[in-house]
Amino acid sequence: AQSVTQLDSHVSVSEGTPVLLRCNYSSSYSPSLFWYVQHPNKGLQLLLKYTSAATLVKGINGFEAEFKKSETSFHLTKPSAHMSDAAEYFCVVSDLGGTSYGKLTFGQGTILTVHP
Amino acid sequence: DVKVTQSSRYLVKRTGEKVFLECVQDMDHENMFWYRQDPGLGLRLIYFSYDVKMKEKGDIPEGYSVSREKKERFSLILESASTNQTSMYLCASLPSGRGKYNEQFFGPGTRLTVL
Q1: Beta-carbon neighbour count of residue A25 at 10 Å?
Q2: Which positions ≥6 away from A54 have C-beta within 8 Å?
Q3: pLDDT per residue as tens digits for the range A48-87
Q4: Are residues A49 and B103, on separate chains, in Cβ contact within 8 Å?
Q5: CB-based contacts of B98, cutoff 8 Å, min separation 6
Q6: Distance (Å, rounded) from C-alpha A17 to C-alpha A113?
Q7: A69, B56, B62, B112: which is deepest, by most CB within 10 A?
Q8: What are the chain A neighbours of B25 within 8 Å (beta carbons)?
Q9: What is residue B3's DSSP assignment?
Q10: CA torsion, ordered B87, A86, B42, B64, to nearest 10 deg
């Protein structure tokens, strides 16, 4: 069984300040982990993914995430927030779980608000 | 670029109506998925299909059925719509191979309201 917990349902930051969105996961297998972003009235877009090649993963738009197996965490960070980062962010875990494809389990989502 | 399209962005239906949501992908992906998205619950898997005419139940299949007659098209059917099916519905596709390492590609979503 696998699960994902996003520790904050809402995060509010000022433009130019760092962003931290927290995610903890559990998985019976060695998982892959993803962060997706959803802007208002848009579909989900992949930000970055961890596939065991490197623990620090860089994504689009200056985001990065670090896989910490000992802490079962995959927190998303960005050094300096931009107004266009305002969106909902989903942490997702994928493992085979006996299937031939990656079964995705989504976190509950974190809404990021960026103030001028 | 992979493109996943959904037939409607917004849909309003009445209780008891039969509702069809259509999804088309243009990248020859074997796997297709239907999710519903509700505030505070993230996305939950309704059904998926790993080949033409093949389907499997996801986590919340009750009240839904699906059809996949062609590789590029995956339909979600609400046999008799109810108000608790008011939600955002997202379709996704996924290529085979590399299993858990592949990301799914999502359509823009259909916001369904059942009155």
Answers
A1: 21
A2: none
A3: 988 777 889 999 999 999 999 899 999 999 999 999 999 9
A4: yes
A5: none
A6: 12
A7: B112
A8: none
A9: -
A10: 30
